[in-house]
Write a structure and sequence with these properties.
The chain is of the alpha+beta class. The chain contains 8 helices and 12 strands. The chain has a single domain, classed as (Glycosyl)asparaginase (Glutamine Phosphoribosylpyrophosphate, subunit 1, domain 1), CATH 3.60.20. The strands form 2 sheets. Strands 4-3-2-6-5-1-11-12 form an 8-stranded mixed β-sheet. It has a 4-stranded antiparallel β-sheet with strand order 7-8-9-10. The structure holds aspartic acid (ASP).
């Protein structure tokens, strides 16, 4: 069965403060990305194309913390991370700390398909983007008034210490898909965390931490406090628990979020797709922007 699930980040999204107008925007953005990704699968396209399409749509949407509308560093710049992985040959590509690539997920994919490497960062990643004829954009393309406000309030609130986790809703985006051939894929893209130190890289572009896919096992995209997801090797933990300990995907995701990460003190959410096409979406935060659609007719968008 072909299927796709997406997320638009997990975090504190107090119902009382999520105005109906904003909630509509989030839902519309999720719906458009979900349907675009699903349409690829419906036409017989690959899971790789489906996750690329869905994540690109979320990167272009200003409400989510990826691409246009990304969270800002403490210097007010956007530094973007993204990764993609396919489950058949377990090929992967990722970029980190890029400042001028409009759709980092596409560059991550190009790294996977056209370079001998898995992860390119900063200036080297952008040099590769130029060679590959990507059109680069000025950094201010990513910056929205809302993110600037978020950064300023974070800085006013004395949350400037590296040791204090940011409180704001995260908003990273990701997708997992299974196509009609049974191939799995996962992709994740983010601006990271508000008020982060320049050069900080989160879990999203780290294969096995924020993103992972292996045919016959599962595909995973994570969101949350990245430092913890890196330390727990979160996405790989889930797939390894399924593959080597025989846990169901539900159980593996639950263990990771509510036992492993909780013990470390980290929170967030995760979407996973089992090799059967079964979708699991779970979180340890107040909410997670998410959507799921499959060939059996399921179509769902949810926040809480
Ligand atoms: N995991 C991302 C990071 O730490 C942030 C998020 O998911 O909101 O970079």
């Amino acid at each position: 069965m072909y299927a796709i699930a997406i997320h638009g980040g997990a975090g504190a999204v107090p119902r009382a403060t999520l105005a109906p107008e904003r909630e509509r925007k989030y839902r519309a953005g999720l719906e458009a990305a979900l349907d675009a990704g699903f349409a690829v699968l419906e036409r017989g396209g690959t899971s790789l194309d489906a996750v690329t399409t869905a994540v690109r749509a979320l990167e272009d949407h200003p409400s989510f913390n990826a691409g246009h509308g990304a969270a800002l560093t403490r210097d007010g710049a956007a530094e973007l991370d993204a990764a993609i992985m396919e489950g058949r040959q377990m090929r992967a590509g990722a970029v980190a700390s890029v400042r001028h690539v409009r759709n980092p997920v596409e560059l991550a994919r190009r790294v996977m398909e056209k370079s001998r490497h898995v992860l390119l960062v900063g200036a080297g990643a952008e040099e590769f983007a130029l060679e590959e004829k990507f059109v680069l954009v000025p950094n201010h393309y990513f910056r929205t008034a809302e993110r600037l406000e978020q950064l300023e309030s974070e800085q006013r609130g004395e949350r400037v210490s590296d040791l204090v986790p940011p409180s704001a809703a995260h908003g990273t985006v990701g997708a997992v898909a299974r196509d009609a051939h049974g191939d799995l894929a996962a992709a994740t893209s983010t601006g990271g965390m508000t008020n982060k130190r320049p050069g900080r890289v989160g879990d999203s572009p780290i294969i096995g931490a924020g993103t992972y896919a292996k045919n016959g096992v599962c595909a995973v995209s994570a969101t949350g406090h990245g430092e913890y997801f890196i330390r727990a090797v979160a996405a790989h933990h889930v797939c390894a628990a399924v593959e080597f300990r025989g846990l169901s995907l539900e159980r593996a995701v639950h263990e990771l979020l509510h036992e492993v990460l909780r013990k470390l003190g980290g929170d967030g959410g995760l979407i996973g797709l089992a090799h059967t096409g079964r979708i699991v979406m779970d979180f340890s935060t107040e909410g997670m922007f998410r959507g799921a659609r499959d060939a059996s007719g399921r179509r769902e968008i949810a926040i809480y």
